[in-house]
Amino acid sequence: MPKTSSTPAVPSLPPLVTQAERLIELGVHRLAGMPADELRAWAEEAEGRSGDALLAVHPDRAPALAPLLRRDGKPGFVVTDMPDVDGFVPADGIEPPGTPLYLLSGLDRGDHMANWSPEEALPALTEQDRTPLLLTEGIHWVLQQPAALERNHCFMTIGSRLRKANGALDARTPAIWISNGTGRDGRERRNAPKVGWCWWGNRHTWLGFASTTARKA
Q1: How many domains does the chain divide into?
Q2: How many CA atoms are closer than 13 Å to the CA of 150, on its beta-carbon side?
Q3: Which of 128, 108, 100 shows the shortest CA–CA distance to 7?
Q4: What's the whole-number mean pLDDT along residues 176-182?
Q5: 16-26 vs 135-144: helix axis angle to the nearest 10?
Q6: For residue 192, what is the DSSP state?
Q7: Is 121 part of a structural domain of the chain?
């Protein structure tokens, strides 16, 4: 296995009621077909039983929300060669609760797995009783906690996979990192949050593997 690195501390998440207001401010509740008051009430009820948790909207109710991300005043974006981003769905064995809203606990950016391939990281996470984040969950995390995305400390979300028409898995795995403003990204996007992809068997020194210990309604 490749060498591992230490994990910089990521601050605690905001309270769930604050997270709910953030989603409402961004209009996520409308995308999910949910009244703002319903989202607020759910967060208030869950607050006392959640601990340090992330509030997520079920991926069936809201698409990948990359354009809502912000860094240095620049909006997030999806790479041009990933027009099928919303086709990346939970991989086999990963089942979000069947509710519009749910919580994730024990989030970890997986910095210690930087320079591992997805193929290497998945069984290691499974052995640790962790499951990789979905792309939508990773975006929710950065929406609520921008410090979770740092240059040289970004992450893959290999819980989301795309299945081809023949049933085989696409070799691309989604990730969230920070654009250098090169190539097709364009110089104007330098330092913007970026949703892209990496090959299943490739390693990248700046990408860990974000994961969770539990999802619950």
Answers
A1: 1
A2: 13
A3: 108
A4: 97
A5: 100
A6: -
A7: yes
pLDDT of residue 90: 96
pLDDT of residue 5: 41
pTM here? 0.94
Domain limits at 182? Answer: 64-96+107-216
> Within 13 A of 190's CA, how many CA atoms are on the CB side?
5
Burial 94-110 (b: 16+ CB within 10 A, else e): bebeeebbbbbeebbbb
Beta strands in the chain (DSSP E): 53-57, 70-71, 74-75, 77-78, 89-90, 101-105, 131-132, 154-156, 160-161, 172-178, 193-199, 207-209, 211-212, 214-216
- Strand 207-209 to 154-156 pairing: parallel
Task: State pLDDT tens for residues 110-141.
Answer: 999 999 999 999 999 999 999 999 999 999 99
**In residues, how long is the chain?**
217
